[in-house]
Amino acid sequence: MEQSHFEDLIHLEDTYWWHVAKRQLATRLLQGRFPAPGRLVEGGVGSARNLLEFRDLGYEVTGFDVMPEVVEHARQRGLNDVRLHDLSEPWPLAPDSVRAVVLLDVLEHLDNPVQVLRNVSRILQPGGGVVLTVPAYPLLYSSWDERLGHRRRYTSRVLRAQATEAGLKVERITHWNSFTLPAACLVRGMDRVLGRDAGSQFPRVSPAVNSALLGCAALERGWLTRLGVPFGLSIVGVFSK
């Protein structure tokens, strides 16, 4: 992650619709399938806002990240068990000791996502599981992805295959963020035609638009958790051990 992107996260993760909606989706899925109490581990901590939310839900939280700045920032926010660790290496936790793992937009950054999911499977207790999100549609891969350090964008089939290879049971895979897909396709198509660099900053929106997008996400979330969503800019997966 670029330092500028991390600084952007610190300012945006509390209120920006995309971060808030993703956090609300993750917490809803966790509470429905792998509720507290128990240890929850987040790989890729960002601004630590998600870990604070998970702690408030009653989990004993641990975080891993490869950026010293991220670890220090999380500790400054009162999260003492946040550690510098490469997710591709064996996770320094006992086997069968973790209730839930969260990987929100992490796998696309990694060279060997299957190995990371194997590491997850090893520490999960029977009946525990993982909630994760990844960006969808390889055809949408653009300079935005490159600047964010993405190695790939996903299809549901690829995500399913990686989780299965790692020994995880697929509980649910569905798209989310369907309501911004047309705009994203248009913008990224224009970027390609015009040769524009999309940069790595999240597009700013007015408070009114931010609220409207949160409302759209809430409506979609209700539908998603019951029936799933057939298309969307991202994919969410729920897997168990």
Description:
- The chain has 241 residues and is of the alpha/beta class.
- It is built from nine helices and seven strands.
- It is 44% helix and 20% strand.
- Strands 3-2-1-4-5-7-6 form a seven-stranded mixed sheet, sandwiched between helices.
- Helix 3 links the parallel strand 1 and strand 2.
- Helix 2 packs parallel to helix 9 (207-227).
- The mean pLDDT is 90.
Question: What is the gist of this entry?
Answer:
By secondary structure, this protein is an alpha/beta fold. It has nine helices and seven strands; from the N terminus they run ααβαβαββαβααβααβ.
List the helices and strands and how they pair.
Blueprint: H1 3-12, H2 17-33, E1 39-43, H3 49-56, E2 60-65, H4 68-76, E3 82-84, E4 98-104, H5 113-123, E5 124-135, H6 143-148, H7 156-165, E6 169-176, H8 181-194, H9 207-227, E7 234-240
Parallel strand pairs: 1-2, 1-4, 2-3, 4-5
Antiparallel strand pairs: 5-7, 6-7
Helix pairs in contact: 2-9
